[in-house]
Write a structure and sequence with these properties.
48% of the residues lie in helices and 18% in strands. The chain is an alpha+beta fold. It has a domain of 66 residues. Strands 1-2-3-4 form a four-stranded antiparallel β-sheet. Strand 1 and strand 2 form a beta hairpin. The longest helix has 29 residues. It is elongated and about 70 Å long. It starts with a strand and ends in an 18-residue tail after the last helix.
Length: 149
Amino acid sequence: MARVVHDRDGRVWTVSSRVHLVEPAAAGELTIVEPADALLRAVLLTVSGVLLLAVLLSTPANLYLPSWVSGPVLLAAALAVAWWLTRRPWSITATPAESLELGAAQGLLRIVRGPWAAHREATALAGEVAERTAAPRHDLTGGELPYSG
């Protein structure tokens, strides 16, 4: 999910979220984790496909499995996958368009767990970016200026 946000100075920011299979330990390690995520996804999909193919090919054609057995097994498998997916870490990033054009990775990064927390955090980060300005919000003596919004 990505959305474009304009701050008070008119700069364009991109707020995006991404799910991770591997836990990013720190913001600086995010560039190291992304290749590991891609490799892990490929391995998980390959192993799952091979196992599913092996089960389908080794099942006899005349096997009768009652629905009261297959229903709960499929439900338990679906619930386990859903629980695992909702506990994955998400990274929410806000990067200005200038840094994307220059190839520099500067901006804001937040890491949360679960898709609903990621949606809330992306919305909050987009709101913060919209209120952001490059101009300092204090006078030369160091005192805070009153809110002008």
